[in-house]
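Pinned message: reference record for non-specific serine/threonine protein kinase
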Amino acid sequence: MAKSQPLLKIGHYEIGKTIGEGTFGKVKIGTHDKTGHQVAIKILNKNKINTHKMTAKVVREIQIMKMFIHPHVTRLLEVIQANTDIFMIMEYIPGGELFDYITKNEISEIQARKFFQQLISGVHYCHQRRVVHRDLKPENLLLNENLELKIADFGLSKIMEDGEFLATSCGSPYYASPEVVSGTIYVGPEIDVWSCGVILFALLTKKLPFNDKRTSILFQKIRKAEYIIPPFVSSSAADLISKMLNPDPIKRITISQIMEHSWFSEEIPNYILEWKSYGEILTRIEKPDPEILKLLCIYLNSNEKTALKLLKSGQNQEYILFYKLIYEKKLEEKKNENNDNKNKNENENETKSNQEEFNLKDIYSIPTILKKNQRESQSKRGVIHDKQWNLGVVLRESPEKIMSEVYRVMKLCKLEWFIENDFRLRCRISKTENDFQNSNKQIPDIEIQICLFSLVKNEKKFVLDFRKIRGEIFWFFHVCSFMINSLEIEKFLQ
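Predicted structure (tokens):
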């Protein structure tokens, strides 16, 4: 009797059949040897990665995906390194691509809105963590067995740095924004908004707004935003599309504004509102959740009094980070609980006669973590939930006057500088004469890039942005704060 072929294993995972294939290797289904939990194993061949000079791209994708815990972003569970390959153990999403679903199914506006709400929730989460996807399209949006959307493939994504503008043309041309196809600089979030607008158009019409086999004509249509919305699309949805597909990135609607739009907010699940309210890692947590506080103390072997003090003061980032991770896990569990309630309600509905009309809001109603009065109190304390992508300090003066004032302040601070162009320079603390010294009376090694950008076309409104090139973050903030406070120009809060 022939012996059965032994199972291939990596870590605790038994490697099964191939479910996909990419440039650097295959994607196989995996099964945990103890729990039986299925995963997707992305196998990346190191030689192929090196041959294509894509090491930085792969490392960036792994770094970015490790950051994410969100119900509508594909989860990276683990990374295992072998001699010849890298194994990315990922959440298994069996429902296929949104692209195939759009092609094969009729999608109502209600269902399109559901998909779109999930997409925007995931994109909003990424942007709050300063990650721009840059390749959003239905092929990179996966569906699970419950037809819930998951954003995948962060290979072209980018972690945003303060003051950094991008000019890389990437992603599918059909979903690319005017600034991308034109090769002009962009911040990042605005190109994801454009791509989401194209996806929404496709969900509602089963067509692309910009489509031509000739690339030059396609790009021309994109630059001018030449498209026609069919009359069967509701006026509210059409209004949102027009705001997202605005060719001017400055006037284009933002993700936060999309979430406030009447079409988007109709029948929105509570868990999406909770993720929106949660926002980015807070610098301090004024009123910690008691359950999370107890768990945090167990994880960090601490007592509640110490943990409470550190969370409120923001003095210990380890405590802030653990609080964030536990909170995100709690939100995810709430969502899963909500899905269980939904299935239960649907089953009950099948057995009852003369049932009241099915109400989507009832199914999605789950205990709200941030009650209305808590949100109001947080607002009064100045807790910011939505990351603003206006970088630097806003000034209303002529560029020449602003730069002249920058030079005066640098001289006042006894800084040395190197001019890159008329509106961009680098500066550092002088080695010979300065007022900045650390506790050991040593001169901090800090280098800062200062750039002046136009904020609004045809208006005397500019952003003076400070970007850390090297050095400790404390000294970066210290020097920048001193310089900004020394500017004798009217400043505008964002």
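Pinned by admin. Summary line: Residues 95 and 146 are 8 Å apart (CA to CA).
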